[in-house]
Amino acid sequence: MSENQNPQPSGDVTPHGGDGTLAQVDRFDDPGVPEHKHRLADTDPKAAKRNERLIALIFVISCIGTIGSLVAYFAVRPDGTTAGVRTSTMLLGVAMAVSLLGIGIAAVHWAKTLMSSKEYTEERHSSSSSDEVRSAVATQFQDGYKDSGLARRPVLLGSVGLALALFPLSIAVPLVSSVGGDWNVGKFRHTIWKKGVRLAYDPSGRLIKASDLTVGSVAHVIPDVSEEERESHEWITEKAKAVVLLVRLDPRDLKRDHREGASYDGIVAYSKICTHVGCPVALYEQQTHHLLCPCHQSTFDIADGSKVVFGPAKRPLPQLPITVDDEGYLVAEDDFNEPVGPSYWERLK
């Protein structure tokens, strides 16, 4: 290593002792504050004005984003279809992103181009400052305020105030408008699964025969409903509650059903909605027969009644009882044996 790559501290240095101890460094020279380099906006009033206008423009764009999020929230409501939910969510998210990013980008550009860039140092002192020190700090704040030129930039102050005042509306308005909505939690106790409803692949809707599944097969399942029901406003909500993960095990590996007699020839069906906070449980490990929730690593053993073997979940996944009809298609024998998803008030179990 060259001398330039291994600088030595100045001051008194205790040499290595015979016992191999390292040298002690008494002190380093204070490098001091580097020379202040003026920016273009510091020396050119026109450049400072350009930056001020640019920052104000970005704040105004942020305001437009906030207004756009409110328009998207009220004018483009989800219509119950996948496309409608996607469009509404995308417009709302883009508008809120423009609003928040506008504030952030403008603030960063303001700090880099117009705020004071001088470095100040202060010697360490006791926690109780003297009157002289407090007076000096107050003077430094006043100097910093003067250096920032805030008093000379009313347009900039107005634009940042407007952007910061408007942005909370993009969050507050949807929250306030949801007050008084549907708070009937009883609807979570049941899904559209019922006796005789056939199991279909998600999202194709193709029916599933027991003979189609080999040991180790995994299928994402939804109820087989009519085309008219698929186009209804309620379908998205009902589908979200009724999604199922279907797995075929070797019957010899099946220790027990969560719901006695609910499986068919080693084929078990469990809700995909984690009983912790409702994330989709869909990671299946074939050798251990474990289902893993990717959000918080709750793990369920589907060969043993879907009992929890790891993680924060407290209850097994609800099981859908299944059998086959006269044509060999898998059908539900009833709804889930308990409400799906995480705990909520008024839940009996």
Would you mind describing this structure in some detail?
The protein has helices at 40-43, 45-75, 82-113, 131-148, 154-166, 169-178, 227-230, 235-242, and strands spanning 13-14, 24-25, 199-201, 218-223, 244-248, 267-271, 283-285, 290-292, 299-301, 307-310, 322-324, 330-332. The chain contains 8 helices and 12 strands.
Q: Give the CATH architecture of the largest domain.
A: 3-layer Sandwich
Sheet with most strands: strand arrangement: 3-4-5-6
Number of helices: 8
Helix percent band: 25-40%
Number of domains: 2
The total beta strand count reads 12
Which structural class best describes the helix and strand composition? alpha+beta
CATH superfamily of the largest domain, called what? Answer: Rieske [2Fe-2S] iron-sulphur domain
Please outline the major beta sheet: 4 strands, antiparallel
CATH C-level class of the largest domain is Mainly Beta
CA-CA gap between termini: 70 Å
Mean pLDDT: 83
Query: How much is the radius of gyration in Å?
Result: 33 Å
In CATH, the topology of the largest domain is named Rieske Iron-sulfur Protein
Uncertain ranges: 1-7, 9-17
Strand fraction band?
5-15%
Overall outline: elongated
Which descriptors would you attach to this protein?
alpha+beta, 2 domains, 2Fe-2S, 349 residues, 4-stranded antiparallel β-sheet, 12% strand, elongated, Rieske Iron-sulfur Protein, 12 strands
